[in-house]
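Journal club prep — side note

Before the paper discussion, L.F. wants everyone to see what a predicted structure for a comparable chain looks like in token form. Sequence:
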Amino acid sequence: MRFLILLIIMMRVAIPTTAAAVPRSIMTSSAAATSENGSGGTKIATAQEEVKRIWRRANAVCFDIDSTVCQDEGIDELAAYLGVGEAVANVTRNAMSGNGRFREALAARLQVMKPSADQLEQFINITKPKLTPGIKELVALSGGFRRLIVPVAELLGVEKSHIFANEILFDKNGKYAGFDTTELTSDSGSKDTGKPAVISLLKKKFGYKTIVMVGDGATDAEASPPADAFIGFGGNVIREAVKQRSNWYVTDFDVLRKELDHIDSSDSE
């Protein structure tokens, strides 16, 4: 089976991993399902089977990049290269203790880094993407920033037009001048911004009927709905809040690939 692959990245910053990070309307946690009736185990299994069915019949799949398609976090790697890794980590920890907007946390980290155009180019030239095992085989059948993602897309054979990401802005001298706040991926917290907005755009503009979001973070889970299903991924880092609220949670891309072998006639209905 072959489906359209899209890469969506927001260079995830300060994503809370508390239970409140993922709206209950997105998914039902194991604990919640069990408390509703005595057949919690059956209900959870049924929910997982439904996600698997949607995965098998999807005609577009959106992947997060950091800690999903790639083993590391691009912004952390860039910060370390610039010599401000610990400072950026401190900003992240401070932001994660509150409930600030994604855009504010992103701006705070970039303000510490302030990468120039030359520094970004040098970083890209010397840094080889660390792909998560199994992703190339799966793709053979999607915040971060576009310049950091293009090399990953090229390795996976994903067209540049299928990348949805943020853009770092530079002035005429190549100095850091902020980031493009008009990009859908530059914010989160509502269905009109972030990954939910990208999914809605894909459905409205390109007519994709069934879209699945795969990722490790709260902003990935936030994309469903409008995505028809969310698959939590913990192959690189396990975020317990996301895991508990994922109807299907995997730690190996091979599991997703093998599930495509189970397509039957009911999946086309």
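L.F.'s comment for the group: The domain at 4-264 is CATH 3.40.50.1000 (Rossmann fold). Keep this in mind when we get to the figures.
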